[in-house]
Design brief:
This protein is elongated. The protein starts with 5 loop residues before the first helix and ends with a strand. It is of the alpha+beta class. It has helices spanning 6-11, 15-36; strands spanning 40-44, 49-53, 59-61.
């Protein structure tokens, strides 16, 4: 069931489309950061922790 809110009815963009666009923007940003040799924030599903990935492939887990 899709619920249409005021913003969706005004601009015609569904929640699913906004989610798709957001994920694509993050993917593009990560590609740009990789090309520039910058850190990329990622999440490890197995360890349930966020980490920073360095250009050399090294991972530094965030938090305790």
């Amino acid at each position: 069931m899709t619920i249409i809110n005021e913003l969706d009815s005004t601009y015609g963009i569904s929640d699913e489309e906004l989610t798709r666009r957001f994920r694509e923007s993050i993917r593009i940003d990560n590609e740009v950061r990789e090309i520039k040799g910058l850190l990329i924030a990622r999440y490890d599903d197995e360890m349930k922790k966020a980490y920073l990935e360095y250009p050399d492939g090294r991972r530094e887990y965030v938090g305790k």
